[in-house]
Write a structure and sequence with these properties.
Blueprint (H helix, E strand, L loop, with lengths): L19 H21 L1 H26 L4 H32 L1 H23 L3 H49 L1 H11 L6 H38 L4 H11 L6 H4 L2 H10 L4 H25 L8 H36 L4 H7 L7 H18 L1
Helix pairs in contact: 2-3, 2-5, 2-7, 3-5, 6-7, 7-8, 7-11, 7-12, 10-11, 12-13
Length: 382
């Protein structure tokens, strides 16, 4: 009697068996939980993120003052005081300029009414629509705008108050972050299981990215303010410097900011000048400065600090803008760049870092060298 051959012994899995569906559900729940926390805690996260970026920016200054013999608290306090002076100096300049601009609003309003009358005359002669009917339609739209502007004004004032409160808290948090820099360094060094310094190296890379991005942003705003102001002065626009600085500050909003900054200069050109060529000149100045910025200033100043491809940048703007509103639009690019650094450091997440990054263009010489061994093998076989 022949016995059946024994069944092969199946190896017992040493690690946990992963169910793909369970893994997908857990990842989805983690993603939903993270988005929920980021949405409801956006005020705190924005505050900490901005304070962290400023602490990274002031860290070299703080370390330099310490090497000169300054105590840590005095070096950190000096950096924060300089930060506050720069912020309020910019605020004072814009406030004084806009106060002067407000004195001329009645004249601009009269010019606007004159333009509206000319437009009504043109519409009546061209489309046979009576001016009374046009005025009635405009009045209805203005009444609706006034009714809706009340809530908008309340939101603007509340947002302004929250922004000032945040601006006062940020230097304090920055001061304490600089004061505890040694403890944070030891914390990140101990955070890795094998104490190999991976987390500390990642944090240092994020700090370098933050410094390079913020320095580049300030430099780009300065150059654009100068270029836009010169362009508006050549056109002979009133408030040219104010309009140039405003357009440069709005440029920090990717893609949309430059054209948002062109709205006010365009209106000033239409109201204060008799020719449409001045309005076209404003568009030409904005387009020219954007061309110079995108092709010369930003690549040289900012470089590849945040190496994101255009699709990743657009998705980041939409996602963070939805989560955090206006501040999300401002911080979307550096946050996503930091996420890419994390993805590039963690092995399972490296494909996501590759997906967010820019495509590398390999030189033709490298492709030719790589093909040489294959040709040699083919010749040896022959």
């Amino acid at each position: 009697m022949q016995h059946a051959p024994p069944l092969p012994h199946e190896p017992v899995p040493t690690g946990p068996v992963r169910d793909p569906l369970l893994h997908y559900v857990l990842v989805l729940l983690a993603l939903i939980g993270s988005v929920t926390v980021l949405h409801y805690g956006r005020d705190l996260f924005v505050l900490l993120f901005i304070a962290g970026i400023f602490s990274f920016l002031l860290l070299p200054l703080c370390q330099g003052l310490q090497r000169r013999g300054w105590p840590l608290w005095l070096a950190a306090g000096t950096g924060c005081v300089l930060l506050v002076l720069m912020f309020f100096g910019l605020l004072y300049f814009l406030g004084s300029q806009y106060a002067h601009f407000g004195k001329d609003l009645p004249g601009l309003q009269a010019a606007l009414m004159h333009k509206i009358e000319l437009g009504q005359t043109y519409v009546e002669g061209r489309f046979n629509v009576a001016q009374a009917r046009q005025s009635e339609w405009v009045q209805d739209k203005l009444e609706a705008l006034i009714k809706s502007s009340g809530s908008v004004a309340v939101n603007v004032f509340s947002a302004t108050g929250a922004a000032f409160a945040t601006a006062l808290v940020i230097p304090i948090i920055t001061f304490f972050l600089l004061l505890m820099k040694g403890r944070f360094r030891e914390f990140f060094l101990r955070l890795a299981p094998d104490h190999d310094g991976t987390v500390l190296r990642l944090v240092e890379n994020i700090a370098g990215l933050s410094r390079q991005w913020l320095k580049g942003l300030i430099t780009v705003v300065f150059f654009l303010a100068v270029l836009d102001s010169i362009g508006f002065l050549v056109l002979g626009l009133e408030y040219a410097v104010l309009l140039g600085v405003t357009a440069a500050l709005l440029n920090v909003i990717p893609y949309l900011g430059p054209w948002l900054g062109a709205i006010v200069p365009l209106l000033i050109a239409l109201l204060t000048k008799d020719s449409m060529m001045y309005a076209l000149g404003v568009v030409g100045v904005i387009a020219t400065t954007q061309f110079i910025d995108n092709n010369f200033i930003t690549p040289k100043v900012v470089g590849s600090s945040v190496s994101l491809n255009p699709l990743a940048s657009m998705i980041a703007l939409l996602a963070w803008g939805t989560l955090w509103g206006f501040m999300g639009l401002l911080l979307a690019i550096p946050i996503t760049g930091m996420m890419k650094l994390v993805f590039d450091e963690i092995t399972p997440l490296k494909p996501w870092g590759f997906l967010l990054g820019e495509e590398k263009k390999w030189p033709k010489e490298k492709r030719f060298k790589l093909s040489l061994p294959v040709r040699r093998k083919k010749q040896q076989r022959k």
